[in-house]
Hints:
The chain is mainly α. The model has no long low-confidence stretch (mean pLDDT 92). It is 75% helix and 0% strand. The longest helix is centred in the last third of the chain and has 27 residues, at 108-134.
Amino acid sequence: MKIGTLLGAVAGGIVTFLLGFLFFGILLADYFKADMIEYAGLLKDPPMIALIFLFNVTFAWLISWALDYGGGSGWAEGAKVGAIVLFVISLGMFFEFEAFMNIHKSLAPTLVHLLVVMVMGAAGGAVIGIVQGYFKRERAL
């Protein structure tokens, strides 16, 4: 694996982690919590931050790999790939959760969640594209 792919994954993971904290931990936390059907022991309080970080780095690695595999680089290509990859993953996870669990009162917050994740994927993917472009012959900026 190329160094640009790995460093892009770390940089993208940091960006998506911080944006996730901003959106889900601060700005929209009450909105999403109000929609959840709470069960005893369902949520960890506090959550395991290290695992959340690894979650973000893992998906950033997938974005970085997809961008590299497709031969792309640059912020625009990275943003596009990032938004698409995280949208598809989140949509699949949503279908699985809805099939097996009863944790939402309505579907509206799920649509908001998908939009937020696309924004996070686009931002993380843009950073990944810039990092990967730095390690290619032509510069991404």
